[in-house]
Write a structure and sequence with these properties.
heterodimer, A: 237 residues, mainly alpha, 6 helices, B: 129 residues, alpha/beta, 45% helix, globular
Chain lengths: 237, 129
């Protein structure tokens, strides 16, 4: 800057007005370029700060509302499925003895009818059979209505599938949103290469209990009872 | 003790519906003398005083897990020979190996069928009996 100023003074002193003007323009342009680049930097920083602020807001909202809400929703899924399983078993446990009873009665009457057809039945026995049959039809009608009632209740108990399905779908959306925010965070403050590498890397086998395995391609787990039996027999079981 | 239908069975699972399913299946197989516990910590004292003949346990439970219950049973002189069947969703090969090495008598992976349960119980008591 100082050398340019000296050069300018020199040019003015020696009366080279055109060259002095040119130099002056050049100096001004340089300043403008620097200024623009500074403003550019500031603008970018401001933009990033605003974006971060938005992201902060979303993450805050995830932590404050969405994730606790998802937890409550998943608890609801556990409660609903438990209730449905119990309701189904309640219904079927009521039906099972009725069906067994009907089976016994049917085979009993079958035997008696065979006896009748073979003409081996005494008149007294026959009268008793008729009375029993009438009582049986009375009872059976009631029992079958009961069975029907319980079976429709079992069907109704399956409505949990729709309700829990909706809840789980919402939670999946939330998980996707959280994933998106995490990726943005990594883009802004972290290392995208690491993320890509991590995605491509083979997942290390997990230790400890983990419940049902969903990934059908995993090699470190059994897929069904046959695999268990094969493994145990290879161990000498 | 070859296959006594009156044998006393303890069913250990943290989900009451699963206990109920197992209890129902056992009843269909003729075993009606069953009791329930919801984790290892509850089950172990019951086993120690309850004179049980057979233990069916889940693995993944809050409190004391099934594998630790199995190890505790094997370490207890009075219970060491109690037949233990594991019914669990845990499916890692290393877990099955661990259960086998800890002295499990049978391993059923969930979801399972009534037939599998019957088969494994038969097999256990063929060998034990």
């Amino acid at each position: 800057m100082l050398s340019k100023a000296k050069e300018l003074v020199g040019l003015l002193e020696s009366g080279q007005q055109d060259a002095a003007n040119q130099l002056l323009d050049q100096m001004r342009t340089e300043r403008d370029v620097n200024l623009f680049s500074e403003i550019g930097k500031l603008t970018r920083q401001l933009h990033e700060a605003l974006a971060t602020f938005q992201l902060d807001n979303r993450i805050t909202s995830f932590a404050a509302h969405d994730i606790p809400d998802a937890r409550e929703r998943l608890k609801y899924v556990i409660a609903m499925t438990e209730q449905a399983a119990n309701r189904t078993m309640d219904g079927l446990e009521k039906v099972t003895p009725l069906v067994s009873q009907l089976t016994v009665q049917a085979s009993d009457f079958h035997k008696k009818m065979d006896k009748l057809m073979r003409r081996e039945m005494q008149p007294g026995e026959f009268r008793a059979l008729c009375t029993d049959l009438l009582a049986h039809f009375d009872n059976t009608e009631k029992q079958l209505t009961d069975i029907q009632h319980n079976l429709s209740d079992v069907i109704l108990a399956q409505d949990y599938q729709d309700l829990t399905g909706q809840v789980i779908r919402r939670v999946i959306t939330l998980v996707q949103d959280v994933e998106g925010s995490l990726v943005e965070l990594i883009k802004m403050f972290g290392n995208m290469t690491e993320l890509t590498e991590s995605k491509a890397a083979v997942i290390q086998p997990k230790t400890g209990v983990e419940g049902p395995v969903v990934d059908k391609t995993r090699q470190d787990v059994v897929h069904g009872q046959d695999d268990v039996d094969a493994l145990l027999s290879s161990l000498g079981f | 003790m070859a296959y006594d239908k009156n044998m006393k069975i303890l069913i250990v699972d943290d989900f009451s519906t699963m206990r109920r399913i197992i209890k129902n299946l056992l009843r269909d197989l003729g075993f009606t003398n069953t009791q329930e516990a919801d984790d290892g910590a509850t089950a172990l004292p019951m086993l120690q005083v309850g004179n049980f003949d057979f233990l069916i346990t889940d693995w993944n439970m809050p409190g004391m897990q099934g594998i630790d219950l199995l190890k505790a049973v094997r370490a207890d002189a009075n219970l060491a020979s109690l037949p233990v069947l594991m019914v669990t969703a845990e499916a890692k090969r290393e877990q099955i190996v661990e259960a086998a090495q800890s002295g499990v008598n049978g391993y059923i992976v969930k979801p399972f069928t009534a037939q599998t349960l019957e088969e494994k119980i038969n097999k256990i008591f063929e060998r034990v009996g």
